[in-house]
Structure formats: structure tokens, C-alpha cells
Amino acid sequence: MITAVWLPSESIKTIPLYPLEMAPTHLRGGLNMMFQLATMLGIFIANMVNYGTQKLEPWGWRLSLGLAIVPAIVMTVGGIFFLETPNSLIERGSKEEGRKLLERIRGTENVNAKFQDMLDASEFASAIKHPFRNILERRNMPQLVMAIFVPTFQILTSINSILFYAPVLFQSMGFGGNAALYSSALIGVVLVSSTLISTAIVDKLGRIVLLISDGIIMIIYQVKRVIVAIILGVKFGENQELSKGFSVLVVAMICLFVVAFRWSWGPL
To answer: What does the pLDDT read at residue 6?
Structure first.
């Protein structure tokens, strides 16, 4: 039996904005990736819960779904203790409160330069008229193109179908119920491991290096996925199951693709 997987809500993707505003510059990349790491840990834990509860017939799937209330409660209660960001306070006119909070975050009273940068940025933003119309100006085209096409190509890699429907995907390819959940759990381990690596090196190597290098890697694995699709079309059909060798190949190709994606495109 394949039980449901806890899916991260699209709405929580606004969360990276918070560490971006709170983190020191030299740690901003790594701290922002902590969001992605937490998401991957959540998917892995969900797979483990599904694997454990699928044996508890006939109500195991109900327990799996019901346990989703635990992270929901943690996030709701945790949100109560969140601090405002200095940027948000300054934008709303509470400049002194914003400065005090900035001092608290940085652990020092020597925040004059950073505080002045925030004031200047706020004043500059307030002075801009018709900001949404300005997005279409020629000078803003590179940022607009990146904002549209990066997430578009990210989704077109089909990473969501792998993450959210891995157990169903593996079962449809002839894996047994337990084997499908086990394979999806393996992908969860790969997700967490690759995200940990990217979190550790992003501020050292830089964002562009990761994006370009792993873009090339993902192109290579997309080609290999076409080969895997051909293999599935030839070797897998009605009343047929994949051999052990081809099953290992399919799982390996998916894991390698996930590594490349979560190394760069996913968290960045």
C-alpha cells in the first residue's frame, strides 16, 4: 500500500525572505538554504512515517495523514516567537525599533553603516513611482527574465513529480509497495545529503558557479533520463516487471538527477 506523502505548501515559499533579511551577508546563502534543507528533511521524515505506518492495516494511512498536524502545530506556534525584521520595521516608519533590533541581531552597537544602507534603500524604494510599470523597462529586463524563466525551467525539469509522487512512480514501474517506499526513502536521503553540501559551500564558491556547473550536469542527466524512458518503454509493459538490474539503473538515474538539482537549482 502506498500512503500519502506530506507535501510542503507552496505558500511557505515566502519563508526564504525572512532569513534573507535577518542573516549577515557572509552567511546569507547558507542560512537561506536552511529552508530547503528543512523541506528535504520533512520529505524524508514523511517517507519514513509512510514506510512505518503502511504495515498498520487498515488504518495506517489515516495515521500517516493525521501526523501531518505535528509540523503544522510546530510552525504555527513557532511563528508566534518570530521577531520582525529591521527592514520591515524601517519600511513602516519604526526606525529606532529597527535599529535596536539590528543591534540585537548583529550582537553589537556598531551598526551605523548597515543601518544607513537600510534607510537609503527604504527611501530610494519609496521615491520610485509606478514600480510595477518600471519592471518592463529595458534596464530591468535581465532581472525580469531571470525571475520568470528560472522557476519555470526548474519546474519543467519534473523534479516535483519525482519528489511528490516517488512511491507511486516506483510502484507503477513494477516495484512492490515496500520496495517503492524504500526507494523513495533512498531519494530522501540523497535530497538531504546534497542540500547539506550546497549549504556548506554556497558562500565559498558563489551562486553563479553552482547554477552554471549544475545546469550542465542536469542537461547530461536529462539526456540519460530519456535513455531510461526508452528502456522502460522497451522492457516494461503490461504484465511485465523490470529486472533487478534495470530497477537499480532507474533508481540510480533518479538519484543522480536529484543530486544535481538539489545541489544548485533547488535551493538557489
So the answer is: 44
